[in-house]
Amino acid sequence: MSRPKKSKAVLIVAVIAVLAIALAVLCFLIKPLVIAPQKAAIARANAAAKAEVEERNEEIQRQYQLALSELENQKKMPTNPSWPKHNQDAEWELVDLSDIPLESQRSIPATRADLMTNGMLLVNPWHKRPDDFSDVGVPSVKKAYSGEDKIQAKDNNVALFPNALAALHEALVAAKKNEGYTHYMVEEGYRTIAKQQEYFDRKMDKLASKYEGDALKEAAKKEVNEPGCSEYNSGLAFELRLYDPNDADVGVPKYSTTPEAKWMNENCWKYGIVFRFPQNAWPLETSTDKSFKTGVSARLNLYRYVGKGNAAVMHYMDFTMEEYIEYLAEHPHIALFVNGVCKYEVYRQYVGEANEFNVQLTGNLPYESSLDNMGAIITVFDRTVQ
Fold this sequence. Notes:
This protein is of the alpha+beta class. It has helices at 2-75, 112-115, 141-144, 162-179, 193-207, 213-221, 259-267, 291-294, 308-317, 321-330; strands spanning 92-96, 105-111, 152-153, 184-188, 237-242, 273-275, 302-305, 333-338, 341-350, 356-362, 367-371, 376-382. It has a five-stranded antiparallel beta sheet. Strands 3-4-5-7-6 form a five-stranded mixed beta sheet. The protein has a two-stranded antiparallel ribbon with strand order 2-10. A hairpin with a 2-residue loop joins β8 and β9.
């Protein structure tokens, strides 16, 4: 009985072995049919993921370049987001910021003496030079520079404050470099009150046969300013003419008719200088009569240092000093944009007649502050330097 049982067990084992081999063969045959689609699907998924990553990287790179571009633009613009938008396509534009405070505001102490002769001190028939004005440190124009930089002057007594002298020197260097003009001469600069009194008294004497009393004084004032009311008393104004020690013919034509005068009248503002007393079609054909503002109707080839920022605004707005200060009195915070870029920010701060005060500043921008002789300080910030 035991032999049949043993045979039956062997048969079962054999069958199982055959089935296992068959199953293995089947799996071997089926595996490629199952695995290949899976590999393909994985490959497609990987390719899609790679494409997505590459697209994301490209977008990140695009955003990065955009951010760089915005940063470059921000370097050319004020950082204060509350500033109104300006026309980036305009050759120039003056933006009123009067309702907006200085950004990153700080202050420094100063005195009237510190700011008295920095450029914007208004001197005219209605605004006499302040009594606390000091002319200490007014150097001789002729002695200030030497060699090729030497400035021609009528004599050693012709003097200007250093800032006006430096601006004139810069303008003369540019005239020589750009046009070859070398014949400018400073005919007159600073006048003391005593000297101005001499001129005024001389004019009074000359007119005494025609007028008397107040009428005499008023007649004299039409031709010569009273002491303290003349631009010559500021130490920041100067009169030009042409001169060549080796060629007398150079000085024969009227200065205002020469190419040198035309160049200076068109370009002096770039160096912080303005033509002080424009009249109709004089000194340039485009000039308009401003004698009703300046109080001077005589045709004087007189220039005045005011600083580059102030001169730029006055140039673009066609302002005299009087008109500019009046404008700032109504618009005490402005910005000048040129070709879409902010060049200067101007802030007028009222201080009255105080001898000491704190000058309000914005951030660490380069600046120049000056009394305006109308109770305020005018501070110009150079926004081209960041």
